[in-house]
Amino acid sequence: MLRLSHELRSPLARLNVSLALLSKSRDLSQAPIISRMEQDVSRVDALMSQLLTLSRLESGIAGEQRTKVDLSLLVQEVVADCDFEAHSLMKSVVGDLDSGALLRSADAEALRSACENIIRNAVRFTDTGTAVRVQLRLQEAAREITITVEDCGPGVPDEQLQTIFQPFVRVQRNAAAQEGIGLGLAIATRAIHLHKGSVVALNRKPKGLRVEVRLPTADRYAIS
User: Fold this and answer.
1) Distances (CA, A) of 20 to 33, 94, 163, 195
2) Cβ atoms of 165 and 199 closer than 8 Å
3) Which residue, of 4, 99, 122, 136, has the greatest Cβ tally within 10 A?
4) Which of 5, 96, 105 is nearest to 46 (CA)?
5) How confident is the model over 99-138, as pLDDT tens digits?
6) Number of other residues whose CB lies within 10 A of the CB of residue 195
7) For 50-84, what is each residue's pLDDT tens digit?
8) How far apart are CA 30 and CA 50, in angstroms?
9) 49: buried, middle or exposed (CB in 10 Å: 19+, 13-18, 0-12)?
10) Before 216, cis peptide (omega within 30)?
């Protein structure tokens, strides 16, 4: 899968160049066709990127990728980025984060990808005019870090709460489900599991979804 994804990147890059040249033409009658082609190529490119990320995570985390990670700072940066993106949709992302949540030996990019995918998924489904709430707590007694992401969307049928973490699963929560590829939460889950953590989804009352991530602190785990 990894090699296949790499092989497809070159022709996709050439297609993007060709479309850019076509878009500069004066033939306005072709504009809708070119626009649709650009959307399709962009979608395939996003799929390839996610497949590459998932393939990398499936192969594990190499020792040289492990560093000391300030998870509080990492999540703060992701919240800020996702909030900026959400504003164009008349939504927002609000963070309530404990400081000092450190992991001694972790893959920062894998954890950033996990947080981005979970929060962006929440932004996609939360109702217009609402906020996605992200909370990070350092549970010193339990020697773990918890991250919760809550949206104000339609939730998920109870019988499908676990399947949303599987690759290519798209639960029809609302029209926004058609925009996703179905790999984001699978990538997040794999990254979290590689850090000996866990992730679950729960429906909120009266509506919305809550995703809970638990990561052991440094003295409880080592990445395999």
Assistant:
1) 13, 37, 39, 41
2) yes
3) 122
4) 5
5) 999 998 898 988 999 999 999 999 999 999 999 999 999 9
6) 25
7) 666 666 666 665 555 678 999 999 999 999 999 99
8) 30
9) middle
10) no
Token pair, residue 188, equals: 């997040």
Question: In this predicted model, what pLDDT tens digit does every residue of 81-90 receive, in sequence order?
Answer: 999 999 999 9
* Contacts of residue 190, Cβ cutoff 8 Å, sequence gap at least 6: 54, 57, 58
From first CA to last CA, the distance across the chain in angstroms is 22
Question: Tokens standing for 189?
Answer: 């889950």
- In the block, tokens 């076509």 appear at 22
**Predicted local confidence at residue 26, as pLDDT:** 57
Distance of CA 156 to the CA centre of its chain: 17
CA 91 to chain centre: 17
Residue 198 CA to residue 186 CA, distance in Å, equals 12
Q: How far apart are CA 112 and CA 74, in angstroms?
A: 7
Q: What is the DSSP string of 111-165?
A: HHHHHHHHHHHHHHHSPTT-EEEEEEEEETTTTEEEEEEE--S----GGGTTGGG
The token pair at 67 is 């560093």
